[in-house]
Amino acid sequence: MATAALSHRILPLRSITPPASASEAKRQFQPSPPLVLPIPKRLSYGAQKCNLHIAQSLSSSSSSSSTPRIPSNPSTKLFVSGLSFRTTEESLRNAFKSFGELVQVNLVMDKIAKRPRGFAFITYATEGESKRAIEGMHGKFLDGRVIFVEIAKSRSELRQGSMENPT
Question: For the structural domain made of 74-159, what CATH number should be given?
Answer without folding.
Answer: 3.30.70.330
